[in-house]
Design a protein that fits this description.
It contains nine helices and 13 strands. It is an alpha+beta fold. The strands form two sheets. The protein has a six-stranded antiparallel β-barrel with strand order 7-8-9-12-11-10. A five-stranded antiparallel beta sheet has the order 4-3-2-1-5, with no helix packed on it. β7 and β8 form a beta hairpin.
Amino acid sequence: MRAHLGDQLVIESPATGAARRDGAIVGLHHEDGTPPYDVRWSDTDEVTLVFPGPDAHVRHPDHGPPGTDASEAEPTSKAAKQAGGPNPGDVGRRVAVERRRHGLSRGEAARRARMSPDYLAYLEEHPADPTVATLIRLADALGTTVTALRGAGIDTPPGQGHALLHPHLRDLGPEECHALLSTHGVGRIAVTTPDGRPAIIPVNYEIVDEDIVFRTAPGSAAAAAVGTDAAFEVDHMDDALSQGWSVLAVGPASAVTETAAVRRLVQHAHTAPWAGGTREMWVAIRPVRLTGRRIAPADRQATNGH
């Protein structure tokens, strides 16, 4: 017997086959999905440690026929061939994009999400409707949110979830700020435009030799940062878990004009500007001040006054 988080454990009467008790698997004790399991029973909402007997089986609501174990499921690649090729759903496509963006193999991503690599392959290659528990694990493993994987809320601002009961706001050190900036992504630059008005513009950025660099067009609002002390911000919010972080970098901005330096930036750029168009002007910000904050659940002992 093998299971994934979010699967259903069903214990049936051997005589009648009728369901006697069922519950969601909310905890695994072995990476390969073998028993025992932590099960939240549907009739009592209590969580207990279960060693399934011969009258129990696992239902996989999102990856395979009801009542089949992962070990009994057909390998994804073979199933895809018989079906005429992979046909991923929206969730699977988003999972695959995030996994590749982080440079993770399927095996590593599956290990982080505590699920079978075969199931992750199935999810990426076929339409599926993963459980919330599965999506939470995947989002955590891929550094994104459940909302982002589902594609919901694309036209609404993040942060509309409920606040944590006991939130803890802490300052981040320089090393953690550098790590969160990572190598590239989308951030926001604050500038004063030529007409004297403040503006905040989202841009695709790269980290090169600790400089924050991005492409824009001469005369654009983002180009107004050149020759000034600019503020650049990145953040990440997880509505499902009601936590997140932000990093603010402040420093002088300058145009990159040396031919070899521009060629190097073009060759190593991870993506073209999403805004499209001709954006051949590179701007570099050299941070002289780097600060950040993170909101996360307060330590349980702290909330108890210890």
